Amino acid sequence: MRHDGRASDEMRAVSLERGVSRYAEGSCLVKFGNTHVLCTASLEERVPPWLRGGGEGWVTAEYGMLPRATKERMRREASAGKQSGRTQEIQRLIGRSLRAIVDRRALGERQISVDCDVLQADGGTRTAAITGAWVALSDCIGYMRDAGMVTGPVLVDHVAAISCGIVGSAPVIDLDYVEDSSAETDANFVMTGSGKLVEVQGTAEGEPFTRDEFNALIDLASDGIARLVDLQKLTVA
User: Which residues does phosphate bind (predicted)?
Assistant: First the structure.
C-alpha cells in the first residue's frame, strides 16, 4: 500500500481545464493531484532564423516554477539572471514532445510557443506539463483553423507523459513528491496516442534496476498514458 492509499497502478486525480487564459490562443490548467500547471499556447507570425523561407513552422516551450510552488519560497530565475539546468532540460523535453506530433509543414511559417508555469508542485511537474501542453496546443491550432490559417491536419497524434518508479521495491505509477524523493528508481515516459515512445528518462537512485523491473514500469506507463490520452480526447471533444 502506498502512503496515500493508492494502488500501484493508480494515478492521482487528473483534470484538464481548457480556456483558462483570456488572451492566449490556447490554454489548459492541468492537475495531477496537488501538482498544478498552467499551460498557454501563443501563436507568433514568425519562425526562428534558421527556418525562414523553408515553408515549415516551429513549436517550442518554456517552463518555470512560481516562487511559492513549493513549501519554501524559491527565488525567481529571472532575478538570478539565468535559468537552472533543470529548467532548460525540462522545457527542451516539452518542446521535443510536442514537435513529435506536429506536421510542421502544415503549420506554415509560424511559431507556437507553449508556456508551462508550475503553480503548485508535488512531483511530476514535467509530465503534467506535457499532458496539459497538448491540450493548449490543440486549442491554438483550432483557433488557427477557425481563422482560415491552416486547412489540413497539423496535429498528427496525441502526446502525454507519466512518471513511474520503484518505491519500496514495488513498481508504481505517477509518483508524488514523497515517493519521488525516496524512490529506488525514478523514470519518466513520454508516449503518443498510438503507443509510440517519444522519450524515456530512467535513473537508478540506489541499486541498479533490472530489465524485468523496467518492463514493469513501461507497462504501467503505457496503461497510464492511454488513460491520459482518453482524457485529452474528452477534453477537446
Answer: 86, 124-126
